[in-house]
DNA sequence: ATGGTAGCGCTGCTA
């Protein structure tokens, strides 16, 4: 079973690269973030032609999340359990059951700055995500929460922590909110398999040649429940997908489990 | 030197 997550920074701008990547990697399920399109503009047909079903939640040129699966999609739900998706203004979470695994594609709010009301919303959003798991899942089931968390879990998950004084993504509050989410019963797949490896970045700023300088952050995560943790076989970042013309500023994260995908 | 890039959509915001 191969699961992946990728913040594509506009699916309309990236559909060619995403389709090519799917053909090359053949994930069983791909979680997308920042599709930046409305549901009616979502290129479901392109994924269908590759053998994938899809569900998408997007309303505008901002945010937007999707789940692309070649092992089926059951019980899809846009937004959180206690929200009406029609009333939600920012489309940041969609979940579905694929191959018996409850999977989430999440795009955690950026937070903008420590003084911003959006920073408080970010902390609250992470709490809401935990509430959703609490209300709808059990930690002894197969659950995976994949996406762009906009939090670097540890200092070693950024290229130079001294550059982040007074910045978001690295504060104790954000890390505590992420920890509280994990305390529900989730494990950071990359850290499980690479406990001592640094520079496992998934995002690099477009500006200033950050990618080639190695100035990145590990903010895209695959969090898995205990029944999946025991089946972890591989976790890696496809940095090649960050190279070449018109890349997303994020690279895809790929997680492989010792489970049969069923087809 | 207080910078830079990309996407969206059309002026400046978001990341």
Could you give the topology of this structure?
Blueprint: E1 2-7, H1 11-25, E2 29-33, H2 44-49, E3 53-57, E4 65-69, E5 74-78, E6 93-98, E7 101-107, H3 117-136, E8 143-148, H4 172-182, E9 186-188, H5 189-193, E10 203-204, H6 210-213, E11 216-217, E12 220-225, H7 226-229, E13 232-237, E14 253-257
Parallel strand pairs: 1-2, 7-8
Antiparallel strand pairs: 1-14, 2-4, 3-4, 5-6, 6-7, 8-12, 9-12, 10-11, 13-14
The protein binds one DNA strand of 15 nucleotides through loops.
Can you walk me through this structure?
- The structure is a single chain.
- The chain has 263 residues and is of the alpha+beta class.
- It has a single domain, classed as Deoxyribonuclease I, Chain A (4-Layer Sandwich), CATH 3.60.10.
- The protein has helices at 11-25, 44-49, 117-136, 172-182, 189-193, 210-213, 226-229, and strands at residues 2-7, 29-33, 53-57, 65-69, 74-78, 93-98, 101-107, 143-148, 186-188, 203-204, 216-217, 220-225, 232-237, 253-257.
- The strands form 3 sheets. The protein has a 6-stranded mixed beta sheet with strand order 3-4-2-1-14-13. Strands 5-6-7-8-12-9 form a 6-stranded mixed beta sheet. A two-stranded antiparallel ribbon has the order 10-11.
- A hairpin with a 2-residue loop joins strand 6 and strand 7.
- It is globular, with a radius of gyration of 17 Å.
- The termini are close together.
- The mean pLDDT is 97.
- The chain binds one DNA strand of 15 nucleotides through residues 9-10, 12-13, 34, 36, 61-62, 110, 112, 150, 205-210, 246, 248-249.
């Amino acid at each position: 079973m191969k699961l992946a997550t990728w913040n594509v920074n506009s699916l309309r701008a990236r559909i060619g690269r995403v389709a090519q990547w799917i053909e090359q990697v053949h994930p069983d399920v791909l979680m997308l973030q920042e599709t930046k399109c409305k549901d009616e503009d979502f290129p479901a047909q392109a994924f269908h032609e590759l053998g994938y079903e899809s569900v998408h939640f997007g309303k505008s040129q901002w945010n937007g999340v999707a789940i692309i699966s070649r092992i089926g999609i059951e019980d899809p739900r846009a937004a959180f359990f206690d929200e009406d998706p029609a009333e939600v203004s920012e489309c940041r979470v969609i979940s579905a059951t694929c191959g018996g695994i409850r999977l989430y594609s999440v795009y955690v709010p950026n937070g903008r700055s420590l003084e911003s009301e959006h920073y408080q919303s970010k902390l609250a959003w992470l709490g809401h995500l935990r509430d959703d798991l609490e209300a709808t899942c059990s930690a002894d089931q197969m659950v995976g929460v994949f996406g762009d968390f906009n939090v670097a879990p540890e200092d070693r998950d950024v290229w130079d922590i001294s550059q982040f004084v007074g910045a978001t993504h690295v504060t104790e509050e954000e890390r505590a909110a992420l920890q509280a989410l994990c305390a529900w019963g989730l494990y950071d797949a990359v850290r499980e398999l690479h406990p001592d490896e640094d520079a496992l970045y998934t995002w690099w700023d477009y500006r200033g040649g950050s990618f080639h300088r190695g100035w990145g952050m590990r903010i895209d995560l695959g969090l898995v429940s205990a029944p999946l943790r025991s089946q972890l076989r591989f976790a890696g970042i496809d940095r090649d997908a960050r190279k070449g013309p018109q890349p997303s500023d994020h690279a895809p994260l790929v997680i492989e489990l010792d489970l049969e995908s069923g087809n």
